[in-house]
């Protein structure tokens, strides 16, 4: 029995390790290519270890395109989106969780129903609306669709309903605290965990956005990392090695966030899935 | 009576809070989500090139044309193959990984992290890397296959193989998410079930087959529907992976979102493109309906058992 158990645990380790290696190979390949020279690419059989670890390709990215601008655009877009979504979701989630008012339930049902509609379905009318407001090809138009998230409202409402007792809010009201004070001083601090989970989720969503930037941004100065990289790769003049260096740099911020907040991110994603 | 009449409705502080707090959010929401969704349906009934003032109402004609158009039907077929292709690989593999991890292993959280990593990385850089891995001349994938005696294949140039490539990349990218959801489901299964089963002699594979799979059914349905919905919206990876020799992006494998964007923003057929969006919406709606139906069915049978 114990022998059998040990055998099955060895098989488990082998299977999971092989799987993990397969999962990580594309990342290793990306990093390896980023350090290679164009001639090294043609070496057969391919090797994972580059001859040297010089940063030439990384510097070449900045020569080829205004990569720092792409980075800045992605960073501010993702940050503004995360802050806006966390704030609007917290406020709306709190109101839907703790206040009863005419039409509240219906409003919430509509929010929830539209949460299942993927962005691709309504992006054409959204584009036309942005065009009318003259917000194409500028930063406001780029970030606008990422200011609210129906799922976020639902998520915060669930958390507030479960974690903040009505009595606590009533007690604060008895002591004469204003509604806004209660919201900022009691509700918000108690929701730190779900707020950061939602914030990380929203940040990653905005950072990884592709279709919307592709549609609305024409000016290369407004390119995000994703868009810049996609445009970059269809231009033939650029070496694959430089391209890979750009890829590494665009993955790096997400990778760093992930390494530091690994458990937190996995938890927040599992929270979002197990509604 | 008199007291009632005196109690006239006045806005109290908490009314003001609800009003001031919610109004701007609902306004933004209405403008950015609700109106565009409704408008998609509306525009789909017109023939409109975005520029001209003339915008004739054509009823359902856009839909009739759609189902006679080769590019659309090809896109619908390709997208369906891709969505189900992702489903049949990503969901079972994710379930197996989650199950193996749940049985206990050292460095479990690191394994989880590695499997999960592709899911949160942006699509474009990883697709760029995969494009290079799948390269027909010097690709790592063909090199790896050569050890199994498989001759090099033009993964991204042949339309059928390109679909296989898109499925491979997307499976790799989505396994982590599905695994996490399954992990949540697995932790919800009480150990007692396994203990009871082991008394009856069901361990290992048998326990997996007769306990884990049936108990995970609602989660499996959820994961499958999410995977299919994402599969039907596939776009970025195709934009990068499947460019043809001339470099026009996404041409080798035509998918719904690609066809939609092309019709809207290259040919300026807004009505026609919106009709495609409506079809996509109906697909998502049916999938969600199936999921909710199955979830409700489960609840109902649960309630019956309680009685």
Summarize the topology.
The complex is a heterodimer of chains A (275) and B (307).
Chain A: H1 2-35, H2 38-41, H3 56-64, H4 67-98, H5 104-114, H6 119-132, H7 139-143, H8 150-163, H9 166-174, H10 179-190, H11 192-207, H12 211-216, H13 225-234, H14 240-260, H15 262-273
Chain B: H1 2-6, H2 13-43, H3 61-66, H4 70-102, H5 108-120, H6 123-133, H7 140-146, H8 159-187, H9 191-199, H10 204-215, H11 217-232, H12 236-241, H13 256-265, H14 270-306
Helix pairs in contact in B: 4-8, 4-11, 5-8, 8-11, 11-14, 13-14
The fourth-level CATH homologous superfamily of the largest domain in chain A is MetI-like
The radius of gyration computed from the alpha-carbon positions of chain A, rounded to a whole number of angstroms, is 24 Å
User: What structural class do the secondary elements of chain B suggest?
Assistant: mainly alpha
| Number of extended strands of chain B | 0
What is the overall silhouette of chain A? globular
- Average predicted local confidence, pLDDT of chain B: 86
What CATH architecture of chain B do you see? Orthogonal Bundle
Number of helices of chain B: 14
How many domain modules of chain A? 2
Helix content of chain A: over 70%
What does this structure look like?
Chain B: It is found in: Cell membrane. Chain B: Keywords: Cell membrane, Membrane, Transmembrane, Transmembrane helix, Transport. The complex is a heterodimer of chains A (275) and B (307). With 275 residues, chain A is mostly helical. Chain A has 2 domains: 2-54, no CATH class; 58-273, MetI-like fold. Chain A contains 15 helices and no strands. Chain B has 307 residues and is mainly alpha-helical. Chain B has one domain: MetI-like fold, CATH 1.10.3720.10. Chain B has 14 helices and no strands. Chain B has helices at 2-6, 13-43, 61-66, 70-102, 108-120, 123-133, 140-146, 159-187, 191-199, 204-215, 217-232, 236-241, 256-265, 270-306. The longest helix of chain B is centred in the C-terminal third of the chain and has 37 residues, at 270-306. Chain B is globular, with a radius of gyration of 25 Å. Mean pLDDT of chain B is 86; it is low at 1-5 and 302-307. At the A-B interface, helix 1, helix 4, helix 5, helix 6 and helix 10 of A face helix 2, helix 4, helix 5, helix 6 and helix 8 of B.
């Amino acid at each position: 029995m114990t022998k059998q158990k040990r055998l099955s645990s060895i098989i488990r380790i082998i299977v999971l390790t092989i799987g993990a290696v397969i999962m990580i190979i594309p990342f290793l390949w990306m990093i390896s290519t980023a350090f290679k020279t164009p001639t090294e690419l043609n070496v057969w059989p391919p090797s994972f270890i580059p001859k040297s670890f010089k940063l030439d390709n990384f510097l070449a990215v900045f020569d080829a395109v205004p990569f720092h601008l792409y980075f800045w655009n992605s960073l501010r877009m993702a940050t503004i989106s995360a802050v806006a979504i966390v704030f609007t979701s917290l406020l709306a989630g709190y109101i839907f969780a703790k206040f009863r008012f005419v039409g509240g339930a219906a409003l919430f049902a509509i929010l929830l129903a539209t949460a299942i509609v993927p962005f691709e379905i309504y992006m054409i009318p959204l584009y036309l609306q942005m065009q009318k407001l003259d917000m194409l090809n500028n930063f406001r138009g780029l970030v606008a669709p990422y200011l609210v998230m129906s799922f976020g409202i639902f998520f915060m409402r669930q958390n507030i309903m479960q974690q903040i007792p009505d009595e606590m809010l009533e007690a604060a009201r008895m002591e004469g605290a204003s509604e806004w004070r209660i919201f900022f001083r009691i509700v918000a601090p108690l929701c730190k965990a779900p707020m950061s989970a939602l914030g990380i989720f929203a940040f990653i969503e905005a950072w990884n956005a592709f279709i919307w930037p592709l549609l609305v941004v024409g000016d290369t100065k407004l390119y995000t990392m994703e868009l810049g990289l996609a445009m970059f790769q269809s231009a033939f003049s650029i070496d694959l090695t430089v391209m890979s260096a750009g890829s590494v740099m665009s993955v790096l911020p997400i990778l760093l966030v992930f390494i530091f907040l690994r458990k937190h991110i996995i938890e927040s994603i599992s929270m979002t899935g197990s509604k | 009576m008199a007291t009632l009449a005196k109690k006239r409705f006045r806005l109290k502080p908490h009314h003001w809070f609800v009003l001031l707090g919610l109004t701007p959010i609902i306004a933004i929401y209405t403008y950015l989500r609700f109106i565009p969704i409704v408008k998609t349906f509306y525009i789909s009934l017109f023939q409109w090139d975005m520029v001209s003032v003339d915008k004739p109402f054509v009823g359902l004609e856009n839909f009739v044309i759609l189902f006679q158009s080769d590019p659309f039907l090809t896109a619908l077929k390709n997208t369906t193959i891709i969505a189900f292709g992702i489903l049949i690989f990503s969901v079972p593999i994710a379930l197996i990984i989650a199950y193996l991890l749940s049985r206990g292993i050292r460095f479990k959280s690191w394994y989880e992290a590695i499997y999960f990593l592709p899911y949160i990385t942006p699509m474009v850089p990883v697709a760029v890397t995969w494009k290079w891995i799948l390269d027909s001349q010097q690709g790592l994938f063909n090199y790896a296959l050569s050890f199994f005696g498989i001759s090099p294949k033009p993964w991204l140039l042949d339309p059928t193989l390109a679909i296989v490539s898109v499925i491979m990349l997307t499976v790799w990218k989505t396994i982590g998410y599905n695994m996490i959801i399954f992990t949540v489901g697995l932790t919800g299964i009480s150990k007692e079930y396994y203990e009871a089963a082991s008394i009856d002699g069901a361990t290992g594979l048998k326990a997996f087959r007769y306990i884990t799979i049936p108990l995970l059914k609602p989660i499996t349905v959820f994961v499958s529907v999410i995977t299919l919905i994402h599969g039907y919206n596939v776009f970025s990876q195709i934009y990068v992976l499947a460019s043809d020799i001339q470099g026009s992006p996404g041409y080798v494998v035509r998918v719904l979102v690609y066809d939609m964007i092309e019709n809207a923003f290259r040919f300026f057929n807004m009505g026609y493109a919106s009709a495609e969006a409506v079809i996509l919406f109906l697909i998502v709606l049916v999938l969600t309906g199936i999921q909710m139906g199955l979830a409700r069915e489960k609840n109902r049978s649960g309630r019956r058992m309680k009685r």
